[in-house]
Amino acid sequence: MTPSTGPGLTLPDGFLMGASTSPHQVEGNNVSSDWWAIENRPGSFVAEPSGDAVDSFHRWPEDMDLLSELGFNAYRFGIEWARIEPERGRVSRAAVEHYRAMVRGALERGLTPVVTLHHFTCPRWFSELGGWSSPESADLFAAYAKVAADVLGAGVRHVVTINEPNMVALMHTLMRRAVRKEGDPAAAGGEHTGAAAFEPGSLEPDAGVTRALIRAHRAAFAVLKEADPALRIGWTVANQVYQAEPGAEEVAAAYARTREDVFLEAAREDDWIGVQAYTRHRIGPDGPLPVPEGAATTLTGWEVYPEALGEAVRYTARVVGPHVPVLVTENGIATDDDDLRVTYTEGALASLAAAMRDGVDVRGYLHWSALDNYEWGSYRPTFGLIAVDPRTFARTPKESARWLGSLARAGRIPGGAAAVPGGGPSAG
């Protein structure tokens, strides 16, 4: 397989090109978190616990070295609430300093840090209070954000409050169902889970949790802006790319309203909005349809549909409005065929370039994921640009990493023969 050549689309100054991870999925031994408790409970519905993950808690300098050497200029990583506040009201200064060192390390390597405060996992004590269903949830999250501001003060400008709140609200429904079916692996789920095929269309997001997440986001936004008005703050949404079959337009619109639009609308006063897109979901008159017969699928069972990225970016811009810039915070493919990863990513970037040529204000592209890692129940789905040996933790960049890094270094992506008109605004 040989990627297409040619000038492509010249990226605007300040455009972020890099990769993403999340703390629970790469750090390992997140023992104070709710997910660790669930994974390790006797008879848990989680097929495979995270364990050491890929030991990035200790090996983050090597991970950042690789990303920088490959040519990337940005790295999205998270700080883990359960490490910062392992018990209610008890802040670990060692954890705060650990994440401050990561911020400094990224900057020293020429990587713009994009830092996520919440990526699915919570402290165990928070979940025992009721999690996002607790009346205290927004205040508790805002208090954590105030502590996190000390980490961000090491030089961060781009902050994600909550990763994929729409999936968090869906997972709340899923977890309630799974607890009733404890011991059945088919009940497991998560954003990229390999233990089960989590189909967002099969669940309704919890309305109370949806409201709580929006309150928590706004509360954290206010706290962070008070700490540093220069912070550029947003949250990321899992864009499902609902495509209506003939006669199902109203059904598809209803799915989008409850599972996506409410979270996008909540970002209309934010500094940016994160787009996370992988595939499409076709909607018929009775709801979601299966993957088309004969279509190529990923290790998670999703249809290989790279055009989802451009469609998600355009849809997000329509809902949020032109004054809120877009940052692609996740896009990738679960495959053990690295040639397919390049082909998929090339198609995704081409669709992104087309959206940018048509005027969508996109400030960056962060691939999911930097590393093969724990995918919420299984290590089998490999999304990473960098392979990790499960026994030695040795890192080996894939050819896809070298290819994408070369695009980052050159400042252009496939899909266009000219620069964005006017060069486009620089990131944050």
TrEMBL record:
Q: Alphabetically list the UniProt keywords.
A: Glycosidase, Hydrolase
InterPro entries cross-referenced by the UniProt entry: GH, Glyco_hydro_1
Note down the stretches annotated as region Disordered: 182-202
Low complexity: which segments have biased composition? 186-197
Q: Which domain of life is it from?
A: Bacteria
Which SUPFAM superfamilies does the record associate with it?
(Trans)glycosidases
Q: Which family does it belong to?
A: Belongs to the glycosyl hydrolase 1 family.
Protein name (database record):
Family 1 glycosylhydrolase
What is the source species? Streptomyces tamarix
Q: What is the lineage of its organism?
A: Bacteria, Bacillati, Actinomycetota, Actinomycetes, Kitasatosporales
